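Field log, afternoon session.

UNIT: design team B
ACTIVITY: writing a sequence onto a fixed backbone
BACKBONE:
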């Protein structure tokens, strides 16, 4: 019997010791049974740079001015698109002065904007400020007119081929004056890519029997187009058979001068550019015979281009806008549908 007791004591003791061991938190955990080793997580790959969204984007748009209906529509396109997409747009109006555009760009660079979209009033004089933007790591998109600058200083251009617009105008003038004749030209802002390109293209396609007897700038405005045509009429009178006018606003100013001089619609064959509502109305009234479209609604495409550039996605360095030619006989019907 005694032996039994001892054994039971010992057994009891062993149970007690075992339960004690089980409860005590082992100072160091007993090595688990050989469970398969979990792969140590690889060092996390650096998170791919977060995609920039429209809401992250601050775009500087140092608009060149408010000289024409085209420009008004262009401004509206950028403001409405920015509003719709949630892009912060830093907008300014340079009153057609390059120095104002440059100082607006400099303040945008100071603010550290994401990107600059520049609609250059003239072609020359941009290298320094483009270099400053590049040094600040801020990409620049050239919008609408072109610049004469080192292409490495800007990311892309979106706008028209103004030379093609001029070529279209020359072809149309040939059709209006098949027997030739003398014409005048009201050109856009001196030194602007729009005026230079249109003048160049026009002269490339103009028939040899049509002579440009004079050319003056009306700076793309109605107010300045009117006195230019007044002076032409005073100097050349009924010699003038046609006029190539670089935008509808100057054409509308010129028509006021023609009316004041007692001329009737069609006395002078006019080829204009832009295709604004004002231009379409003047075609419907018979004063303008042909309007070569120039599309100002560049907001959506420019914002998309900007996002691709900022996200390092592929993009086209040159985006040419689609533009048509419109004629007086269709103007009244198409006018209600015109977007600008
Ligand atoms: C052309 C644009 C011109 C328009 C004018 O793309 O720069 O400037 O033809 C506007 O109406 O003033
Ligand atoms: Zn154009």
């Amino acid at each position: 019997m005694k032996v039994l007791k001892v054994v039971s004591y010992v057994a009891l003791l062993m149970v007690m010791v075992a339960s004690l061991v089980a409860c005590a938190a082992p100072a160091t955990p007993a090595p688990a049974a050989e469970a398969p080793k979990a792969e140590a997580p690889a060092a996390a790959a650096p998170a791919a740079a977060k995609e920039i969204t429209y809401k992250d984007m601050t775009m500087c748009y140092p608009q060149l001015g408010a000289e024409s209906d085209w420009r008004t529509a262009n401004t509206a396109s950028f403001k409405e698109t920015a509003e719709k997409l949630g892009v912060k747009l830093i907008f300014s109006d340079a009153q057609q002065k390059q120095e104002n555009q440059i100082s607006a760009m400099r303040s945008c660079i100071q603010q550290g904007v994401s990107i600059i979209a520049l609609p250059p009033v003239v072609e020359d004089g941009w290298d320094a400020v483009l270099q400053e933007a590049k040094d600040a790591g801020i990409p620049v998109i050239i919008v609408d007119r072109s610049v004469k600058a080192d292409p490495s200083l800007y990311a892309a251009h979106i706008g028209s081929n103004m030379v093609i617009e001029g070529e279209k105008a020359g072809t149309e003038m040939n059709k209006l004056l098949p027997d030739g004749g003398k014409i005048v030209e009201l050109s856009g802002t001196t030194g602007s890519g729009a005026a230079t390109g249109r003048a160049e293209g026009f002269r490339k396609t103009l028939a040899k029997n049509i002579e440009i007897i004079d050319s003056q700038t009306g700076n793309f405005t109605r107010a300045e187009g009117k006195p230019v045509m007044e002076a032409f009429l005073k100097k050349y009178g009924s010699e003038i058979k046609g006029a190539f006018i670089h935008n509808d606003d100057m054409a509308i100013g010129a028509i006021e001068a023609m009316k004041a001089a007692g001329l009737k619609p069609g006395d002078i064959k006019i080829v204009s550019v832009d295709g604004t509502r004002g231009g379409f109305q003047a075609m419907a009234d018979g004063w303008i015979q042909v309007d070569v479209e120039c599309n100002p609604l560049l907001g959506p495409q420019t914002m998309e281009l900007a996002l691709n550039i900022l996200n390092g996605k592929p993009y086209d360095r040159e985006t040419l806008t689609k533009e048509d030619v419109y004629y007086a006989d269709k103007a009244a019907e198409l006018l209600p549908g015109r977007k600008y």
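LOG NOTE: The domain at 162-294 is CATH 3.40.50.2300 (Rossmann fold).
NEXT ACTIVITY: expression trials, pending approval
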